[in-house]
Q: What sequence folds into this?
């Protein structure tokens, strides 16, 4: 079973590496959205510092929505997904493996580039570090919640917009605690509470989201 | 006679037809009583003047929006677990009423907010979570509408409703915490602790009226959904042919 999971994980990662343009586009989108905000609201650093955590987090949220559409769509189109449903390996674990690979190729990259954006918003070293850590904890959560939405909308017309419509409201708590961690770090308060809550939600999602996504896939493909 | 007898759309259809006038009549009666109490009998609030009277629509619609989401999730779960068609139809029938209730709560909240706080909208925890609830309703309806196959649509939307139910408390508490972080207790939505008895009575009667209205409308919508989905069935053809 572990071998099957690892094989799926490796395969998805390899596909992501071979389609660099696809993988990179969400990253570029992230950077562009964050860069547009100063153009929209003005270049004063005081304002940008105030907005920075929220803007970067919202941009990360939107960028990860953009990447989610691919999570199951290709496998659905070429029939791989049906084979996965038939395989003796529990579907929820396969979903978890796929989501993990998807996160490495999307969420992790977003987190890695975020300190650069933090500099653009004049957030300072410590806040940049907190931003990175909050994204490191938060983006897997986005991928997991998003996997449910991606599974529900697999194979539908207009799946992309629908996916965002379904998933974005559910992601509100992640945004609140993710951006909240950076803000409380800027305000000189501790970040432990935010990180604990993000971590708790991540654990909950790690357990529940693959089950829900697997159920959704079964509904979509029956 | 078992309670599952009416799980068949064929038997539920006439039952709902007989029940609707009762619920609608009760809704009308209770609304009239509630409005008389609310607009006529209840005293003027010493802080907010007459503007508080929108509470008799605002609070019931906010309550109903949450109760209907729970009812929707309940029927969705029944439909998903027992694979009953009628339960899924009820869930689908409830969604527009729930969305309308949360919209009404936001709208009347805005109308209330303007004279009392001087602004249409505040990023208060309750307003924000009500808005997210509206988004959840819209998501449920959009997902159902996007899938052509009815049964698949039922089940997918049901799963979404269940995911939403797990999330609603998390959303509510996170928004509440976010709110306390962002702005101090500059504005408090909580009522004066001692609410006049007549105000409370008017609000409860109006809530019952909204409850009856929601049931009547959901049943009426369920009847239409039954006809639409069972149009190939013989009993529907007989019904429509004789009518």
A:
């Amino acid at each position: 079973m572990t071998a099957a999971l690892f094989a799926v994980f490796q395969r998805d990662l390899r596909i992501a590496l071979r389609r660099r343009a696809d993988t990179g586009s969400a990253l570029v989108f992230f950077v562009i959205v964050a860069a547009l905000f100063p153009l929209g609201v003005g270049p004063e650093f005081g304002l940008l510092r105030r907005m920075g955590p929220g803007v970067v987090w919202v941009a990360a949220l939107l960028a990860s929505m953009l990447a989610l559409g691919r999570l199951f769509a290709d496998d659905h189109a070429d029939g791989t997904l049906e084979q996965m449903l038939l395989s003796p390996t529990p579907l929820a674990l396969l979903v978890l493996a796929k989501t993990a690979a998807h996160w490495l190729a999307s969420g992790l990259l977003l987190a890695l580039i975020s300190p650069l954006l933090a500099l653009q918003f004049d957030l300072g070293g410590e806040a940049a570090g907190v931003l990175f850590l909050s994204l490191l904890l938060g983006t897997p959560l986005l991928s997991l919640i998003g996997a449910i939405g991606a599974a529900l909308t697999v194979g539908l017309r207009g799946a992309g917009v629908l996916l965002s419509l379904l998933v974005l409201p559910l992601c509100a708590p992640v945004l609140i605690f993710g951006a909240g961690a950076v803000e409380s770090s800027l305000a000189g308060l501790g970040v432990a509470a935010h990180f604990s809550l993000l971590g708790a939600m991540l654990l909950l999602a790690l357990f529940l989201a693959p089950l829900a996504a697997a159920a959704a896939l079964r509904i979509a493909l029956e | 006679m078992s309670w599952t007898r009416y799980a068949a759309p064929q038997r539920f259809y006439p039952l709902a037809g007989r029940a609707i006038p009762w619920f609608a009549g009760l809704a009308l009666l209770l609304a009239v009583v509630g409005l008389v109490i609310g607009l006529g009998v209840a005293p003027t609030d010493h802080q907010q003047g007459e503007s508080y009277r929108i509470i008799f629509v605002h609070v019931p619609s906010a309550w109903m929006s949450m109760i209907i989401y729970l009812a929707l999730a309940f029927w969705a779960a029944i439909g998903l677990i027992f694979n009953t068609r009628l339960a899924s139809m009820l869930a689908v029938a409830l969604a527009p009423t729930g969305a309308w209730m949360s919209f009404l709560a936001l709208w009347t909240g805005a109308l209330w907010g303007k004279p009392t706080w001087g602004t249409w909208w505040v990023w208060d925890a309750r307003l924000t979570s009500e808005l997210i609830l509206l988004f959840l309703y819209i998501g449920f309806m959009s997902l159902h509408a996007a899938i052509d196959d009815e049964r698949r649509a039922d089940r997918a939307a049901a799963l979404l409703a269940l995911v939403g139910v797990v999330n609603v408390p998390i959303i509510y508490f996170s928004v509440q915490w976010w709110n306390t972080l962002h702005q101090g207790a500059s504005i408090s939505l909580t009522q004066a602790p001692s609410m006049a008895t007549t105000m409370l009575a008017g609000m409860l009667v109006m809530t019952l009226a909204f409850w009856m209205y929601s049931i009547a409308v959901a049943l009426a919508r369920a009847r239409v959904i039954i006809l639409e989905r069972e149009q190939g069935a013989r009993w529907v053809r007989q019904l429509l042919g004789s009518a």
